[in-house]
Design brief:
The chain has a domain at 1-26 and 34-44. It is 7% helix and 5% strand. The protein has one helix spanning 15-20; strands spanning 2-3, 9-10. Strands 1-2 form a two-stranded antiparallel sheet. It is largely without helices or strands. A hairpin with a 5-residue loop joins strand 1 (2-3) and strand 2 (9-10). The longest helix has 6 residues, at 15-20.
């Protein structure tokens, strides 16, 4: 993950590429608003612990559905009586 300003991040394919500042292109259209929030914790010197977490979910789908009928199929409409 590459920090881009104070409120944006970019993703990299590997940790080495992230350290080099080389981000990947996300070409799919997303939905909604995603936020990265840093929670406050007690200072480590006062017995607190420091934890930083991030989560990213991508669901990119390119699907084609095909329906096929055999040459010998006879299609009929249901009776309305």
């Amino acid at each position: 993950m590459i920090l881009s300003g104070t409120d944006k991040v970019q993703l990299a394919a590997t940790a080495a590429l992230a350290k080099a500042g080389t981000a990947i292109d996300l070409t799919g259209v997303g939905a909604g608003t995603q936020r990265l929030t840093v929670a406050s914790a007690a200072p480590v010197k006062d017995g607190g612990s420091l934890g930083i977490g991030a989560s990213v979910a991508l669901n990119i789908v390119n699907t084609t559905a095909h329906a096929q009928l055999a040459d010998t199929v006879i299609l009929t409409a249901p009776s309305t009586a």
